[in-house]
Design a protein that fits this description.
Elements (H helix, E strand, L loop, with lengths): L2 H5 L1 H4 L2 H21 L2 E5 L2 E4 L6 H26 L5 H11 L3 H8 L2 H12 L9 H33 L4 H21 L1
Antiparallel strand pairs: 1-2
Helix pairs in contact: 3-4, 3-5, 4-5, 4-9, 5-8, 6-8, 7-8
Length: 189
C-alpha cells in the first residue's frame, strides 16, 4: 500500500469491498456513538446525546445524517457528470467517515476526559490550569484535527473519483454544497 492508496482507496479497491467495509464501520460508528453518549448529527460532526436516548434514536439520527449527505452529493454528482454511480457516492460518504471513529475514542480516554474536566472547571482562572492538562488537550486537538482533515481528503477524493471533476468551479461548488449540507443536517437532526 502506498500514499496514493491511503488517501484515495477508491482507485485501488473494488466498490463492493469498499461498501462492505463502509457498512461495517457505519455499524461500529453507531455503537461507538451510543456508548460514548454522542450522536452523528451530520457527517464530520458529533454532538452529545440527550438524556435517555435509546440506541434506536442514535441509529435514526446517524442514518438520516448519512442519507442526507449521500442524497445531496449524489444529485450534485449527477449534475456535474451524468455517469456518476450511486454506489460510488455511497462509498464516498461511508469510507470518509471511518477515521472519525478514532476521534470518538480519543475523547473517551480517561486522562483526556479528566484534562477536559479540569480545564472546564478552571476556565475563569487561567493560572489554575495545569500544564499537563493543556498539553493533553492540545495534543488531543491536534490528533482530532489531523483525523478530520484526513476524513475530508477521503470525502473529496471519493467524490472526485466518482464524478471525474476537474474544473476548479466544480470543486468549489462541491465544497460549498458539502459545507451547507453539514450545517443543515446539524440544524435538522
Amino acid at each position: 500500500m502506498n500514499w496514493k492508496t491511503l488517501f484515495n482507496p477508491f482507485l485501488k479497491f473494488d466498490e463492493k469491498k469498499l461498501l462492505i467495509a463502509g457498512i461495517l464501520f457505519f455499524i461500529l460508528n453507531i455503537f461507538a456513538s451510543y456508548y460514548t453518549d454522542s450522536i452523528n448529527d451530520s457527517i464530520f460532526h458529533y454532538s452529545g446525546l440527550e438524556e435517555n436516548q435509546t440506541i434506536w434514536e442514535v441509529v435514526k439520527t446517524n442514518s438520516l445524517s448519512y442519507l442526507l449527505a449521500i442524497a445531496v452529493i449524489f444529485i450534485l454528482g449527477k449534475i456535474l457528470n451524468s455517469k456518476t454511480r450511486f454506489i460510488d457516492i455511497l462509498n464516498t460518504v461511508l469510507i470518509s467517515q471511518i477515521p472519525l471513529i478514532i476521534i470518538i475514542l480519543v475523547n473517551e480516554l480517561p486522562f483526556y476526559k479528566k484534562a477536559l474536566e479540569n480545564h472546564s472547571e478552571n476556565i475563569g482562572t487561567p493560572e489554575k490550569i495545569l500544564f499537563w492538562d493543556m498539553a493533553v488537550l492540545t495534543f488531543g486537538g491536534f490528533i482530532s484535527l489531523s483525523i478530520l482533515i484526513y476524513s475530508i481528503v477521503l470525502y473529496y477524493n471519493g467524490f472526485k473519483t466518482a464524478t471525474n471533476i476537474k474544473k476548479w468551479q466544480h470543486i468549489v461548488l462541491f465544497a460549498l454544497i458539502s459545507f451547507l449540507t453539514t450545517i443543515v443536517s446539524q440544524i435538522i437532526f
